[in-house]
Amino acid sequence: MAGRPLRVCFVAYRGNMRCGGQGVYLWHLARQLCALGHRVDVLVGPPYPDPMPFAHRVEELPNQQFWAKWFARDRRALLPHPSPLRVFEPLNFYELCASYLGFLPEPFAFSLRAFGALAHHVRRGDRYDLVHDVQCLGYGILGIRALGVPVVTTVHHPLSVDRRASFVRDRSFRDAIGTMTFYPIGMQSWVARRVDRVFTSSAASARQIADDFGVPGDRIAMVANGVATDVYRPDPSVERSDAEILCVGRASDPNKGIGTLIEALALLPKRARLTLVDDDHPDNPARKRAAELGCADRLHIAGRVPTDALVHLYRRATLVAVPSRYEGFGLPAAEAMACGTPVVATAAGALPEVVGVGGGGVLVPPDRPEALAKGIATLLEQPEARAELGARGRDRVVAAYAWPRVAEATAAVYADVVEEFRRAHPSRG
């Protein structure tokens, strides 16, 4: 079974590689599975992924993105163009009303669209060995399983983690009520307990899924995230700075610990500079906090940058800081080590696993600006130690997290799930 090519269909409610880890995971895993000889179809919602010429079929499912428009207060864009009456189509109308009431409607609506599309393909004669859901976990995913095909899902970390972080950010009872209603945790936990396997990327995330979603440990497959080590790699021609700290993360997300990093920056020598890859808007909380602490002149917010520019920033940086309160994996740490750049990270979530496997950095306690500043300052003063950590991190990340290895491990779990499903449902084989 392990060597037989499989027919796999991915369903992913967001596919763009620049809007989060879901799109990066989808694109690279699908490409490597195709390279291994498996046939891959993709059902995906907007923002849509980069071209996927390696896939057998890519079907872009519509979504009016009402929630994003409500959030941006872009009322004029709410009516579908050029056919405004399409707002009354059932799923469109549900998404509009749910967005207005403060719910996140995308996972549920997308799962029903994906179920409808996949049922159409099955009626037409298409057959799949397995369906792989990428962190949607809408009720429609169970409809897909009822079609007679095993379903696995990937959960990088449960939404309960984001909800707890949102409570930290809330400033009023009304904010807290909004947080309670926004995240579809009940739906996602219900579905997660009923699919055939839950993939996740770290032992820390596996424990969180078991605790918060109630998924039995033997139904969780711990297969690490991949890193595009052919893209994220050192380049000796790029001159490294001797005092540039790089951080990739959203200052608006309390889990990323950017506020702690800004406080650490204020404690560092004046020559230290911080480049933050985040939205460059006037209200960015990192800019406000740096101004309060008198270090705004040493903070540069680079905006959301394309992959080639991000790789250049990794290569140029003296070190990368990952000050998170929680990470289900910690992709910036792994990407930095793949580029031969040492990391100073907090001992939070999966970061001890990732940095420990890579061996390319040092760990400090979370939420401790003094400890973070000390860790950064120590490496700033030790170029030999930085070079040693960078070289070690690159070698170990390639061995542990290169996408071909991750795809092989994923396909092995697929084969086990398909065999288990056929033994349990012999009439569907």
Provide the β-strand percentage band.
5-15%
Give the CATH class of the largest domain: Alpha Beta
**Tally of extended strands?**
13
CATH topology term of the largest domain:
Rossmann fold
Second rung of CATH, namely the architecture of the largest domain: 3-Layer(aba) Sandwich
Question: Mean pLDDT, nearest integer?
Answer: 90
What's the order of the H and E elements?
A: EHEEHHHEHEHHHEHEEHEHEHEHEHEHHH
Helix content: 40-55%
Look at the helices and sheets and give the structural class. Answer: alpha/beta
Shape: globular
Q: What separation lies between the terminal Cα atoms?
A: 14 Å
Task: Strand order, main sheet: write it out.
Answer: 3-2-1-4-5-6-7
Domain module tally: 2
Q: Could you name the ranges where pLDDT drops below 50 across 5 or more consecutive residues? A: none
Q: What would you report as the Rg, rounded to the nearest angstrom? A: 22 Å
Give the count of helical stretches.
17
Oligomer: single chain
Largest sheet: 7 strands, parallel
- Tell me the CATH superfamily of the largest domain: Glycogen Phosphorylase B
